[in-house]
């Protein structure tokens, strides 16, 4: 292990001050750095669990409220559930995204991170990965809750449904993390993030809700193909674009 | 960065003058076009008097959606590239004036829809895309208002503006597909070539008048932002 690597470890790893041997020595440093950033963020989240608990409680409460304001005799569950699912995913995801940069800006730890040898693109990718895990974890709990409360006949479609959810969660995390970095520099961070991100989530939430509806109705997969393509295209374009423009959110 | 005070804007006395002569000309042109549209243009046989709203609606859409939005996005992208303070001001000005024109589109549209379709609002592709775009530009302007220093304001808002370049085709495609699966009433906008000559003339004049108004307002807003930045630079110096 080189001196550089040891420096990286100290800067990024709040858990261990001793140097641990890494099996990923041959991996490109970009991937390695990104994974370390993600690990650091998740470790902090795992130790406090505050944002995760808040987002989960919010998601479950939202499902319950939707269930009790819904008249099953007027609207079939199948017409309402996909929309409910994605409203909950979007808003509970935002709760976690806000915290993504606020944590580091508080004690000026962000300056330390930027001063380390990790590239800005790797910092961003790591943050996106951490947020992806965060959003996916909330969805893991919210998805069964919606299925249970709305009595949805998922049957053998679990795999597909999870695929759609993950595909949308990736785009959501990439765009959300970028705007969290933008909002962290402003006075109205918590208020501003939904204002900026929600118009950007439109091309993500509509295809995701439509594809979920197709899957839940048990229609052939070909009926959802256009939506899948759109989700995939959104992910590719916006993940790439966010990585490219992220360095501009940092003060030179 | 390159945020020097714009001395040209201050030394230019025309920029400081209260009322812009061009604004007077543009407003007179818009009023003249409205008079022509209301009293001197025949009433559409099928759509009735409500059709006259198109002489405001369509020109506002052309200026707000097809000129202001791309201008905002492209100048944001340009700012990230060459960091010229004038591009940031251009993005800011086109966003603000564009929001006004898009607002005109979103107000006149439902008024027409109420009389012709019998409903204020329909989630049709073009309308849906317009409302999301309007919300996006609004978010952009709120972001600008929430950043203190001019340099980071320019940088952060340009990030959002640059991402908007990619967003617009996606929103367009998404809502087109969305409506494609759920066919509803379709907007039947009168096609220009199929209009009778008198209506076509009014339509073309109204487009010219509104475009003039748009560019005059854009120019005023751009100059005003230059003066504002110069004042900020003097105060902080």
Secondary structure layout plus pairing:
The complex is a heterodimer of chains A (252) and B (237).
Chain A (H helix, E strand, L loop, with lengths): L2 H10 L16 H20 L1 H19 L8 H21 L1 H8 L2 H7 L4 H30 L8 H27 L4 H28 L8 H21 L7
Helix pairs in contact in A: 2-7, 3-4, 3-7, 4-7, 4-8, 4-9, 5-8, 7-8, 8-9, 8-10, 9-10
Chain B lengths: L6 H5 L1 H4 L4 H19 L14 H29 L2 H32 L8 H22 L3 H32 L15 H40 L1
Helix pairs in contact in B: 3-8, 4-5, 4-7, 4-8, 5-6, 5-7, 5-8, 6-7
Description:
The complex is a heterodimer of chains A (252) and B (237). With 252 residues, chain A is mostly helical. Chain A has ten helices and no strands. Chain A has helices spanning 3-12, 29-48, 50-68, 77-97, 99-106, 109-115, 120-149, 158-184, 189-216, 225-245. In chain A, helix 3 packs parallel to helix 7, helix 4 runs parallel beside helix 8 and helix 8 (158-184) runs antiparallel to helix 9. The longest helix of chain A has 30 residues, at 120-149. Mean pLDDT of chain A is 83; it is low at 14-26. Chain B has helices at residues 7-11, 13-16, 21-39, 54-82, 85-116, 125-146, 150-181, 197-236. In chain B, helix 4 (54-82) runs parallel beside helix 8 and helix 6 packs antiparallel against helix 7. The radius of gyration of chain B is 20 Å and the shape is globular. The A-B interface holds A 175, 178-179, 182-183, 185-188, 192, 195-196, 198-200, 202-203, 206-207, 210, 226-227, 230, 233-234, 237-238, 241-242, 245, 248-249, 251-252 and B 1, 80, 132-133, 135-136, 138-140, 142-143, 146-148, 152, 155-156, 158-160, 162-163, 166-167, 170-171, 173-175, 177-178, 181.
């Amino acid at each position: 292990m080189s001196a550089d690597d040891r420096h990286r470890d100290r800067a990024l790893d709040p858990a261990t001050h001793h140097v641990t041997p890494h099996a990923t020595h041959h991996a490109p440093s970009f991937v390695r750095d990104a994974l370390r950033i993600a690990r650091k963020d998740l470790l902090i989240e795992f130790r406090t669990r505050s944002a995760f608990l808040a987002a989960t409680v919010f998601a479950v409460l939202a499902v319950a409220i939707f269930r009790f304001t819904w008249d099953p005799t007027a609207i079939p569950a199948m017409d309402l559930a996909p929309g409910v699912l994605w409203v909950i995913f979007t808003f509970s995801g935002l709760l976690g995204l806000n915290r993504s940069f606020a944590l580091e800006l508080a004690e000026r730890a962000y300056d330390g991170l930027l001063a380390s040898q990790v590239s800005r693109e790797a910092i961003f990718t790591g943050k996106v990965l951490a947020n992806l895990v965060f959003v996916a974890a909330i969805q893991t709990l919210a998805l069964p809750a919606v299925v249970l409360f709305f009595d949805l006949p998922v049957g053998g479609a679990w795999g597909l449904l999870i695929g759609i959810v993950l595909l949308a969660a990736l785009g959501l995390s990439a765009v959300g993390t970028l705007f969290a970095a933008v909002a962290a520099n402003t006075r109205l961070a918590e208020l501003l993030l939904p204002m900026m991100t929600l118009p950007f989530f439109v091309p993500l939430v509509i295809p995701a809700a439509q594809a979920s509806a197709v899957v839940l109705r048990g229609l052939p997969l070909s009926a959802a193909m256009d939506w899948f393509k759109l989700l995939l295209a959104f992910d590719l374009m916006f993940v790439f674009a966010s990585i490219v423009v992220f360095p501009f959110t940092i003060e030179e | 960065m390159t945020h020097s005070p714009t001395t040209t804007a201050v030394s230019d006395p025309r920029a400081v003058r209260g009322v812009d002569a061009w604004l007077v000309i543009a407003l007179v042109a818009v009023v003249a076009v409205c008079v022509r549209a209301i009293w001197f243009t025949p009433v559409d046989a099928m759509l009735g008097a409500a059709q006259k709203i198109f002489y405001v609606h369509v020109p506002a859409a052309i200026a707000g959606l097809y000129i202001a939005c791309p201008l905002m996005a492209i100048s944001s992208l340009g700012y990230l590239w060459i960091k010229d303070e004038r591009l940031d001001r251009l993005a800011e000005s086109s966003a603000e004036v564009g929001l006004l024109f898009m607002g005109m589109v979103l107000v006149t549209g439902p008024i027409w829809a109420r009389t012709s379709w019998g409903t204020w609002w329909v989630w049709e592709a073009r309308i849906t895309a317009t409302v999301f775009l309007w919300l996006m530009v609004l978010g952009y302007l709120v972001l600008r208002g929430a950043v203190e220093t001019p340099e980071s304001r320019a940088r952060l808002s340009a990030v959002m503006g640059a991402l908007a370049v990619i967003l617009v085709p996606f929103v367009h495609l998404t809502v087109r597909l969305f409506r494609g699966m759920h066919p509803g009433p379709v907007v039947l906008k009168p096609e220009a070539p199929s209009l009778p000559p008198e209506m076509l003339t009014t339509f073309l004049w109204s487009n010219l008048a509104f475009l003039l108004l748009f560019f005059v307002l854009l120019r005023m807003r751009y100059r005003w932002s230059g003066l504002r930045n110069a004042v900020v630079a003097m105060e902080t110096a």
